[in-house]
Design goal:
Length: 291
């Protein structure tokens, strides 16, 4: 064997040992990151549980000291919830409101995102519509509910219009801001590589605007729940708003809090589903969480 061959084999062996050391270090770093992530998940869960116990315990203690006509406490709400669930009353009225929420939120998401993208893309449309979007968003949405009822009536279509009114503008504004806040240097790099307009939007603009669009959806969910209840109260008295109004009128505070707590749980659940979808559609937004 020549000296040159021996040296090349020695170099190859040293390179392979270096590669194996690097791979071992990467695996160790990933293991440490996963362990740290699990630790933070346990800590977060513990904090949430302690916070929930403290809040419910304080509510239970102080709620029992107040006249039940004026206030209530968690065990009474739980007992009322069991009765309403067993009788099917809660689901009957909740399902009516959920249909309205789903329809209004879906329409607002589709049309709001589309209009936000169009306004951000075409400056003439932006100038033409910006004043009206700002003005309508500045007006309290509840002030426009009687007008919608006057135009559309008291049926389900009016309720969907109310939810749409509450959720449309956050989608438009957040989508518009998301596109406008895309780093101009990324656009310049894409154009330098001769990307088409479709490629610029699909590979650069839309991925960069996803965080803003998701934030708009989160705002829309909260506003949509408010609009859903207001629609129940202002139009035909049905849905979960009817439950709140009915039990408040007969001073059943424990039963009145059941749909109120249900709305809170519904908001948390919808936000959790949105975060799950966000992790699937835009995993790069949570890349730092896994490192």
């Amino acid at each position: 064997m020549s000296v040159t061959q021996a040296e090349s084999r020695a170099q190859a062996g040293s390179l392979s040992s270096v590669d194996s050391e690097l791979s071992a270090e990467k695996q160790a770093a990933r293991a440490r990151a996963k362990a740290l992530q699990r630790k933070w998940m346990v800590v977060n869960a513990a904090i949430r549980i302690v916070s929930l116990v403290v809040v419910l315990g304080g509510w239970e203690y102080f709620g029992r000291q107040i006249n039940p006509v004026l206030f209530t406490y968690p065990t009474a709400v739980a007992n009322a919830a069991v009765k309403m669930i067993a009788s099917g009353e809660l689901w009957k009225y909740l399902s009516q409101s959920l249909i309205v929420l789903a329809a209004g939120l879906a329409l607002a998401a589709i049309l709001g995102i589309a209009l936000g993208l169009i306004m951000a893309r075409f400056w003439a449309i932006d100038i033409a519509l910006d004043t009206y979007i700002t003005a309508l968003y500045s007006i309290p949405s509840v002030a426009l509910v009687p007008v919608l009822v006057l135009w559309i009536g008291f049926e389900t279509s009016a309720k969907i219009a109310v939810v749409f009114l509450f959720t449309f503008f956050p989608m438009v504004i957040n989508t518009y801001q998301g596109v406008k806040n895309v780093d101009s240097r990324l656009i310049e790099v894409g154009r330098a590589f001769r990307c088409s307009e479709r490629q610029l939007w699909s590979n650069i603009v839309l991925p960069a605007a996803v965080p803003f669009i998701v934030a708009g959806l989160r705002l829309a969910i909260g506003r949509g729940l408010i609009g859903m209840v207001l629609a129940d109260l202002y139009t035909a008295i049905t849905g979960i708003g009817y439950l709140i109004s009915r039990y408040a009128s007969i001073y059943r505070t424990d039963a009145m809090f059941v749909p109120i707590v249900t709305l809170g749980i519904l908001g948390i659940s919808l936000t959790g589903v949105l975060r799950f979808v966000e992790r699937r559609v835009a995993p790069w937004m949570h890349q730092s969480d896994r490192e």
